[in-house]
Amino acid sequence: MYELFDEFCWEKHKKVITFDYHKISGLKNFAYWNLSRAIIPTPMHYHSDIVEMHCLVKGKRLCHVEDKSYNITGNEVFITFPTEMHSTGSVPQNPSEFYAFQVDLKNKDNLLGLDKAFSNILFSLLTDLKYRHLKLENSHITLLKKAFGLFSKGDIHSTYSGVQYLCCFLFDIPNLSPITQGTLSKRDRHIQKALNHIEENFCSNIQLKDLAAISCLSLSRFKSKFKEEVGITPNEYITLRKIEYTKHELENSLISITDIAFKAGFSSSNYFCSVFKKLANCSPSQYRERFYSSHT
Question: The pTM is what?
Answer without folding.
Answer: 0.71
